């Protein structure tokens, strides 16, 4: 069956930077067409005659499935499926498979990198050197920004799945104590602390949970006020988990020791964002790059090949919907 199917990758440039081995994906189909990017108005036309659609972030809506009756399989080159109308796919008999756990090592190390950068005031010292302050110092070292040791500190965690567990192990290797928080909308557990009990205890808080109606803006002005004045906040999950205006205001008041985020509510932030203002101190922003190591992206290719092979064998893997 695999030798007879035509596949179209709608946005392969979002995955492959020219550093991936795409040959296994080519070999999985009779024909594989790669498009670097695809606009919404191009989707239906490009999928005509294809049985397999591959998408990282290109939306596949009900109109697309109605216009492309030959589609049998959607391979999502990511974990999130919010860009796929799963109900419409099911109604048209289309199987949707995603990728899972591919970025755990990459995101976990990025999370610790952000925490270490905040604790050591790395951006501040880099700016000082660029401004010539070390060169003009009166002694051999420059220690204008207080450095914090992670050993003995408490890390609060919201979300303790595969990724959260990996971050917890790395934090514990630095001598940190890990406390788990209760996510809104989830059943209470004895090993999870309610937010109002967790936040005052932690020296750093890291988020590893999905964005839904229960977790949207779960870290707002009230929650930030509960945190210690020198605590750190790290988000490598989803932008909507934090009230971005409240975080900007809190950092301007100097209440937190610092914050770092790899995600924003709108990505890319073409329409601006409260956290992009130039006057916000002790804030690190990275461009949703935590997942993007070469190794993680190659694992996505491998999982898509596995998903295709499972579908061809009548035993689909990682099915969503």
Automatic annotation (TrEMBL):
Keyword Secreted attributed: no
GO molecular function, one term: hydroxypyruvate reductase (NADH) activity
Record's keyword annotation contains Oxidoreductase: yes
Keywords: NAD, Oxidoreductase
Entries under InterPro entries matching the protein: D-iso_2-hydroxyacid_DH_PdxB, D-isomer_2_OHA_DH_cat_dom, D-isomer_DH_NAD-bd, NAD(P)-bd_dom_sf
D-isomer specific 2-hydroxyacid dehydrogenase catalytic domain boundaries: 18-317
SUPFAM superfamilies recorded: Formate/glycerate dehydrogenase catalytic domain-like, NAD(P)-binding Rossmann-fold domains
Domain D-isomer specific 2-hydroxyacid dehydrogenase NAD-binding stretches: 112-290
Cross-referenced Pfam families: 2-Hacid_dh, 2-Hacid_dh_C
Enzyme Commission no: 1.1.1.29
Family from the record: Belongs to the D-isomer specific 2-hydroxyacid dehydrogenase family.
Cited NCBIfam families: PRK06487.1
Protein name: Glycerate dehydrogenase
